[in-house]
Amino acid sequence: MTLLTRSLSGLRPLTHLTTIRHITTTSKPAANLATARVPEQNGSQQPYFRDEPSSPVVRTAIPGPNSKKAIEDLNQVFDTRSLNMMANYQNSYGNYIADLDGNVLLDVYAQIASIPVGYCNPVLLAAATSPQMASATINRPALGNFPQHDWADILRAGVLKVAPRGLDQVFTAMAGSDANETAYKAAFMWKRRQERGPDVEFSADEIASAMNNQSPGSPHMSILSFKSGFHGRLFGSLSTTRSKPIHKLDIPAFDWPQASFPMRKYPLEEYTSENAAEEARCLVETEDLIQNFHNPVTAVVVEPVQSEGGDNHASPEFFRGLRDITKRHNVMLIVDEVQTGVGATGKFWAHEHCTYFLEQ
Prior knowledge:
Blueprint: E1 2-5, H1 65-74, E2 96-98, E3 104-106, H2 110-113, H3 122-128, H4 131-139, H5 151-157, H6 176-196, H7 204-210, E4 222-226, H8 235-240, E5 258-259, H9 272-292, E6 297-302, E7 305-306, E8 312-313, H10 316-328, E9 332-336, H11 355-358
Parallel strand pairs: 4-5, 4-6, 6-9
Antiparallel strand pairs: 1-9, 2-3, 7-8
């Protein structure tokens, strides 16, 4: 999910979350399916998947003989160079992923943090086999142009029940990269509307130059991201991704700036002053780029926790400082929760650990 923290009132909020139904706290028992977590009278909680494996099971080398055969077959029709494991999702369950040889591993990858509610989740299975899901799948509505008659009810009963405070609209997208791309476009359009005026039509020069990828129709603006951050692999989002060179090699990129993300020392209690100085340094660098980068910065994108870039954390004070800088310079702050959202950090959204975000 990507959140846009608004710098000025009147900007229509934008948020992204995969289109799943609201997950309730109870479900009817079903064969071979777990029941959802139900609070007990004494205040303790039962596990989400009561009968999931208690520990990993390793029966063969990985990949085993069955997996090797399946990989060889798949390689005839699909590029398998990035393959890590041939999975059997029908036998995967809860937090455990299975392969074709009876190996069952504790999965901390969760399909790039996209299924935090576990494999073969019974509530999702019920939603996936519902007539409503079947209709959405086979009719594939272009929601911006032809939304179905009860789309507002679906959003209110589902995604918007867990929307971050102050965000009352949702824009659904296919993937995290799409969400960030849409956020970047919204930021650019918001800024140009401010510069042009709210009710001013596009000029003939803007219209003509846009078709040639030239200014003023295609303005020289930028999105600032942080070193080691990951925001996707489409063209705009890839220009803000800074985690691994292999993602970016041979691909043209926009001329956009990157600032240092705090690299804190641990244990935290032993490096209080050093970490505070490191965060202050990064904030000074960020503000300098916003003020002086040759392609004016329209928005800053940041992960609450840098995930793919190395599990890098900053303090709430750093994020408060970042928000203060973006407000001071009328720059939008985009909070990328594609990998940290939906309960991955103990709160539904990771930015909720920093109450300052919720007050803005």
